[in-house]
Specification:
The complex is a heterodimer. Chain A is an all-alpha fold. In chain A, 84% of the residues lie in helices and 0% in strands. Chain A is globular and about 65 Å long. Chain B has two domains: 7-86 and 165-262, Rossmann fold (3-Layer(aba) Sandwich); 97-162, no CATH class. The N and C termini of chain B lie far apart (51 Å). The chains are: A mainly alpha, B alpha/beta.
């Protein structure tokens, strides 16, 4: 019996899948190359007269970090409240409402603070970086930089990468504090445990490792967001519509990468 | 002429493909120090691709592009940065950074590549703006400029580092004749005042003949001629005359072949 040939629809689907797979591998390669280039300019930029300037890094830090503070505060407080609400409701079944401090402390510090901060920065700054790079590529601004002798990776990507590496952990730390405080205030109002006692219990429960677990993730998320945005922005095709497509793709890829990496990180760090 | 003036750009048997499509087919030409070479041709003739090769933005499938004696395909990173500092480019769209003022745009190469204090950079920026007849516009944003002004601003940015070579991509495209003539005047002024070698890509004939010392004519990736404007005007080559007189090439179409192509049978 000879194997049947795939139908034209099936062939087209296989072709599309194959092309997407090749494109995906290519993009991972480009991301690796961008990271290597960024490290090169951070280490040796001054020697080849391509120094990374502090001014653009500070500007990016303002955009990624300071400008995100209000929304980060709102989301973190909401997460803290939500965890307290859910936790108390669930623990009530066992008459263990007072154990809510443990649940909130661990889940916020190890999981929710880095995750929500990563998603927030991906949506705000990842999309903005991708749109900026895509627009600059289409308007030949990137070509102009190259002809002038200004390396586009050093000028456009490295400041964002450095800023994200500083501001994502900083925002995560802020989210830790705000979420715990919001949960503490709710617990004080509903269970009568004072905020001071709640905070003291949180400090007693948490270890440096828990905090580093969350901050470590945020560092990885920072690298992922900037690289995914840079790869998507630089590979734009098709004018203004292409910019829109690349921006959307960046947000979807960033959030997917953050969630998958989070799971892998937890899997690695909780075994052994 | 070439005996007394140095070769600045040498293109030898340049072949380039986009996918399976051949864009440039064995192009060879030279650009001499201090001359204005205009690359002319219709849409899709490969002139912008040739310019991108000269600027080192593309690498050839085969052939060699040498700029100031350096083979662009075999440069180390440091050599590439060093060489590009001697180049300036004014793209068709201007390619100005939209988030910066005109002045900041022009000073950008100085800020990134030169160790100068702010006052010196501002003086240099104003000098270049004057040179392109755009003095006093440094505080405007690129979006507030007209097409001609944006091209002038791009030119000021391109020459801020006093490059040896200036590349201009379609400087007259989309401009009215008066603005176009003024921009051509700026290009000639830059060459005379700063002794630059200038390569201009254009499909505007009036502009090409007004500014060129020599004209290279491209058609479908092939170089038809490189010569002085008058020699190009008098060329016996029918394809060059078609281009100069804006005569479309008449392509014989076989109706049966055409129908087959439509039906996807060809």
């Amino acid at each position: 019996m000879t194997p049947s040939r795939p139908s034209p629809d099936g062939r087209a689907w296989l072709e599309r899948a194959g092309r997407s797979a090749v494109e995906g591998v290519e993009e991972v390669g480009v991301a690796g190359w961008l990271l290597a280039q960024s490290l090169y300019f951070l280490g040796l930029g001054r020697r080849v007269r391509q120094p990374v300037r502090l001014g653009p890094v500070v500007n990016e830090m303002m955009q990624i970090g300071i400008a995100a503070l209000p929304i980060s505060t709102l989301l973190s407080a909401t997460i803290g409240l939500m965890l307290a609400l859910q936790g108390i409701d669930t623990l009530k079944t066992f008459g263990a409402e007072a154990q809510i401090v443990i649940g909130v402390a661990f889940s916020v510090t190890r999981e929710f603070a880095p995750l929500i901060t990563g998603i927030l920065v991906a949506g705000r700054s990842g999309s903005a970086l991708a749109a900026r790079l895509a627009t600059m590529t289409i308007n030949q601004e990137v070509d102009a930089l190259r002809v002038m002798g200004v390396d586009p990776v050093r000028f456009l990507v490295v400041p964002s990468l450095l800023a994200a590496l500083v501001m994502l952990p900083a925002l995560t730390l802020w989210a830790d504090v705000v979420a715990q405080l919001a949960a503490g205030l709710y617990v004080q109002a509903t269970l009568g445990i004072s905020l001071a006692v709640y905070v003291q219990q949180t400090f007693d429960i948490l270890e440096a490792g828990d905090l580093l677990h969350g901050l470590g993730k945020s560092v990885i998320f920072a690298v992922l967001i900037v690289l995914i945005a840079a790869v998507n922005g630089a590979s734009v095709k098709g004018g203004a519509e292409g910019v829109g497509r690349r921006t959307t793709r960046t947000v979807v890829h960033c959030i997917s990468a953050i969630i998958v990496t989070d799971m892998v990180f937890v899997w690695i760090t909780t075994r052994g | 002429m070439s005996g007394t003036r140095a070769l600045v750009i040498e293109v030898e048997r340049l072949v380039t493909h986009y996918g399976s499509r051949r864009i440039l087919n064995g192009v060879s030409l030279t650009v001499l120090e201090g001359e204005i070479l205009v690359i002319m041709g219709g849409s899709g003739s490969g002139k912008s691709t040739l310019l991108r090769h000269m600027m080192g933005l593309e690498l050839p499938s085969s052939g060699v592009v040498r700029v100031l004696g350096k083979d662009l395909a075999h440069l180390s990173r440091e050599e590439s940065f060093e060489l590009h500092r001697k180049m300036g480019v004014a793209f068709q769209s201007g390619a100005l950074f939209s988030s910066m003022t005109v002045g900041e745009n022009i000073m950008l190469p100085l800020e990134e590549l030169a160790d100068l204090d702010r006052t010196t950079m501002e003086i240099m920026m104003r000098l270049k703006l004057e040179l392109v007849d755009l003095a006093g516009f440094e505080d405007l944003m690129p979006a507030e400029l007209s097409g001609g002004m944006a091209k002038r601003a791009a030119m000021a940015r391109a020459i801020i580092m006093d490059p040896k070579i200036l590349f201009c991509d379609e400087p007259s495209a989309g401009l009215d004749p008066a603005v176009s003539a003024a921009l051509d005047e700026v290009i000639r002024k830059l060459r005379d005042a700063m002794h630059m070698t200038i390569v201009v890509v254009t499909h505007e004939l009036t502009s090409a003949f007004r500014i060129a010392d020599r004209i290279a004519v491209l058609e479908q990736g092939e170089l038809l001629a490189v010569d002085a404007p008058e020699a190009i005007r008098q060329s016996p080559d029918q394809r060059i005359q078609n281009l100069i007189q804006r005569r479309p090439e008449v392509e014989a179409v076989d109706p049966n072949e055409y129908l087959k192509r439509l039906a996807g049978e060809a």
